Amino acid sequence: MAIDRNSLRGKLFIIIFGAHTRQGRLFDLCLLWLIILSVLTVCLESVPSIRTNYHPLLHTLEILFTVIFTIEYFLRVYSHPKPLKYLFSFFGIIDFLSIIPFYLTFILPAGHFLVTIRIIRLLRVFRILKLTSFVHHAQVLKTAIIASLQKITVFMLTIVALVLIIGTVMYVVEGEEHGFTSIPQSIYWAIVTITTVGYGDLTPQTPLGQVISSIVMIMGYAIIAVPTGIVTVEMSRSQPISKRTNSIECLSCGKAMPINTNYCSNCGHQLHE
Questions:
Q1: How many domains does the chain have?
Q2: Half-sphere exposure (CA, 13 Å, Cβ side) for 219?
Q3: pTM of the model as a whole
Q4: Is the pLDDT of residue 208 over 90?
Q5: Where residue 207 sits, what CATH number does that domain have?
């Protein structure tokens, strides 16, 4: 269903959903700050000393944020050409879940713990990715990750086989008397060690086990760099033509234009200051 852009509903749609417009970008940026402040309020409220001294202020701020997000939610439903499509979309569900726990506390006395779900509204930050200047870069990253998927899968299967072998060897070397009570327990130690996390809850006691542990830790540093290198190579291949030829990339839509062009032929954005 088409919306008259000159009507109130149409103007609201342009502001709320039109991330390519100046008003839409301003709206999304204001929304981003409100989300951050709201999440910060929830986090501060969980600190006992702050909650004791500033509970009235934090509670008032939370009511204010909830009212703002509730109004914004209903404005989105009202201004969307297909309200049901928005209601059952990913961000529509996230928007609903971000406000409903606060109201449940008035209905269900035991539902106060559901307020912690409010922090899920931080996921709404991803709507900012709809800002035009970020779309192209997000696409480059997405293309690089998809192109790297097969190589990373092979790499991960190799790591799985490696930790199985290392875990089995450590189970034989250390034995149950040193805490390596089973092969799964030893595999857990191998994963913790090869990722250089090192919880320290399980450590080798024998000289041979310590030597193997040292080798595994050194291997861990090299292994961590492999996925990063794979994705980096694919990202360099995914760079737009404008990075490799005598052309300039439009910061608004990402289209490559000749270097001597002043305006983008796709969106009309000024290419040179």
A1: 3
A2: 15
A3: 0.54
A4: yes
A5: 1.10.287.70
